[in-house]
Amino acid sequence: MSLAHGYAAQDAHSPLVPFAFERRSPGPNDIRVEILYSGICHSDLHQSRDDWGGALFPMVPGHEIVGRVAEVGADVKKFKVGDIAGIGCMVDSCRHCDNCKADLEQYCFEGATWTYNAKERGGERLTFGGYSDHIVVDERFAVKISPKLDLKAVAPLLCAGITTYSPLRHWQVGPGQKVGVIGLGGLGHMGVKFAKAMGAHVVMITTTPEKGADAKRLGADEVLVSRDADAMGAHAGSFDFLLNTIPVGHDVNPYAALLKRDATMVLVGALTELEPPLRGVNLMFGRKRISGSAIGGMAETQEMMDFCAEHGIVSDIETIAIQDVNQAYERMLKNDVRYRFVIDMATLERAPA
Amino acid sequence: MSLAHGYAAQDAHSPLVPFAFERRSPGPNDIRVEILYSGICHSDLHQSRDDWGGALFPMVPGHEIVGRVAEVGADVKKFKVGDIAGIGCMVDSCRHCDNCKADLEQYCFEGATWTYNAKERGGERLTFGGYSDHIVVDERFAVKISPKLDLKAVAPLLCAGITTYSPLRHWQVGPGQKVGVIGLGGLGHMGVKFAKAMGAHVVMITTTPEKGADAKRLGADEVLVSRDADAMGAHAGSFDFLLNTIPVGHDVNPYAALLKRDATMVLVGALTELEPPLRGVNLMFGRKRISGSAIGGMAETQEMMDFCAEHGIVSDIETIAIQDVNQAYERMLKNDVRYRFVIDMATLERAPA
Questions:
Q1: The Enoyl reductase (ER) domain covers which part of the protein (chains A, B) (predicted)?
Q2: Which residues on A lie below 8 Å from B281 (Cβ)?
Q3: Residue B196 phi/psi, 5° resolution?
Q4: C-alpha to C-alpha distance for B276 and A194, rounded to whole angstroms
Q5: Cα dihedral A216, A218, A222, A227 sign
Q6: B contacts of A237 (beta carbons < 8 Å)
Q7: What ipTM does this complex have?
Q8: Rounded to a whole number, what is the distance in Å from the CA of B99 to chain A's nearest CA?
């Protein structure tokens, strides 16, 4: 065991406060990572406030973790001390089901072990996330990161990045395709960058005309304002693929109308009820498809990280001190971030043990 | 012009009554078909009662038409007098859009011309359907039917048949796959027959345990009662494909749970709102897909008809006289039909002109 320091929610109604806790000692396949940067995901806020139910407290959020390897177990092959490592939403899975064998641990039949707000595999100890000074994790659930990248801006790739990269890759987005990214936030801004780097003609679809200029700076070829019925009509039936990053339940019918025959819209943000409801006829005429996608497997997360190194892709971020995390949550609720907060963990003061 | 006789709804609130009207004389690409049998589709009832709005009266329903070719235009290539022909839901389309060129006239960008409750292409004359003694149609929108088949039981293939055959083919259902057919009615009973003939392991999914024995007679290998939560749980994540024939909006979430990773559920019946709403998370974990499909193109309708001749597949029907059509509608509303009514058009008395 080693003593760790971080920030935790003690219950659903209080701000995050300094918190000391224990991490396991590295086993033979584990690495110990000194955390440099920890991205703030919208889901950190939802979970720490128990918006989705079932929250486990105390909770140390954070699943966009970049750090330096400080210790490696005897059987570790992928990392050596001093390497830069990334840890995302998962720290374990069953490893033997069909999905785990297919390198899709996020769809583990028995359920992946999430980086925080979960219990360690086969035990009762809580997992604690990246708002902390170090973490111990099986090397299978860490990826290698090129030290050439701006490491603080790499952190959000571990969740916002892979969540958008994976469906774009799976549905084979590429040159000659017209691809829409719906919603310009933490996920959407990464979707634009990736779709553009993959060679597609990228249309940013947003409710907010003011975001247009920024969307083009990020790489969008066009901006489509979804509240403009004429513009939506002009784009009807023209998209090869839609990446829908809207983080709440919403009316997907107008977006379905944008799809070509046999084309797919993938939901990556909206976990809850799609209201007003989807109308069957809007899928039938044109054999349109709606699907969803959750983060990505570890092999694909490594592939994404290598793609980012090759193409010089990172997130647009605003760095904060850990002491400002509660204020950052409030700003996120107002969409006042372009496009992701990242905590500089060097700002962490050690809490009393 | 030629005088035709049939049964029509004169408005949304009255029963169907005898009706005389004019058909166009066959043009060079047209065939004139003496109608032998006309299937009754659920949508006939909805349209004649204007349940979906926009109904055009007088309305002669019927888009599951089997008859004998009585006359052929000068340029007709596919048919000769005496052949058996089938006409389904469409009688025309733009013929130059991408979907028409891809033999998917049902998804015509400009809208296909429906067999009834529509206007003739480029004109103001109403189209009139199969509850009548003859029809004139471009040969492109008629299919050849093997005279070896039981012709009265062939009629429903033109709508219920192709509606289920097309998605099963498009999503490449075949041996080694576990395929669920949801809902045992006019569409569902054809779905079971086709999926079985294509070599799949077929599971009939129904709310009604009493339908189990009949489902097995039709070819189902298993029956899953959707109201049995334990049974649904036992089948979770196990289906390669789901053909959802439920004809009204419903909760698709329990069915999404049945899909394997990357597997698809296709809606062919539910045109309206899917309520309670679909939850995004139910697609995300497993990258599951929901799509829809409408009838099939003319080339595929011919392919289906040939498949039926090869495999001896027809619908399970109950033949009625045209004078009983209003009573048949009432029985349909009570699901009192196994599984499709077909009108024997020989029962038609000529109405006064």
A1: 11-343
A2: 271-272, 292
A3: -65, -45
A4: 34
A5: negative
A6: 109
A7: 0.94
A8: 8
